[in-house]
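Per reviewer request, we include the raw input and output of the structure prediction for the construct analysed in the revised manuscript.
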Amino acid sequence: MRKKPKHIILISLIVLWGIFCCLNIAKAGFGITPPDIVNEYLFPGASFEKTIYLVRGNPDEELTAEVTIEDSPIKDWITIENGMMFPLPKGEKKVPMKVKINVPEDAAYGRYKGKIQVRAISSGAKEGQVTTLLGGMVDIDLTVTEKVFSDFRVKTVSIPNVEKGNPVVVIVNLENLGNARTRPSKIHLEIYDLSHRKILRSADIFEIKGWVEAFQTGQVKGELPIVLDLGEYWADVSVYKGAEQVGFAKVHFRVIPPKERVVVQKPSFLTLSPLTAGLILVVVLVLIVLVIIFSKRKRSQIKEKAE
């Protein structure tokens, strides 16, 4: 039987070693997601936030994230809420890093680019020794423009419990993606019984309360006047941007008894008990007598001095 050439065996060993190393690197890998921050519709004075996640495949030790903002025209626009160094705890595979962008009021229109470098470092056995394990880069691509752009994303839809007799309130949590304040054009609401078979009311809500400012996340509300019996219900909620449906949710809510309103009445002499009224009268009479006695004594002293 022919023996395999030595160079083939050597190449095979090298390939196996490479595969083994790659598997170990993948196991202990370090990633950044998303790897970039892009905003094409900023205006002078605008600000927004973006959360970047630092991901480790095998967080078997505590590391430290070291952040460096590279020199660029927008270096001073960038703030890391976590700080320039923050821990990557043991056992945490995904650690958020919040990046804030503040465009100066005097920023010129145009396109701006920058980079944020993140390194995962580990303290060595010797005092002061630091070892860089892995790193990554966040690319920043911003455009300052005078164009108005309106857009939003529906994050959540909810209906709080309704006190009987009150309108149904729909709360929509929005993320404003544009550079102008925004809110839905309408909310379409369909209310069903608990089995979600019988529709009880279908209506459009055009009067939306509240706005969400540019690049911010916030809530807007819509109300539907309807009297429902006590119990549980389902609602199909559709959120519109212009004529386009951009959000839908099936929401469960309850109609509960109205809370008792406590009426606080001001004390009245006529409403006091006889005992309390009597005590007050006695105190008043005593005070009157004391005032009369004091006045007489004062007059007597004045008369004696005059004589």
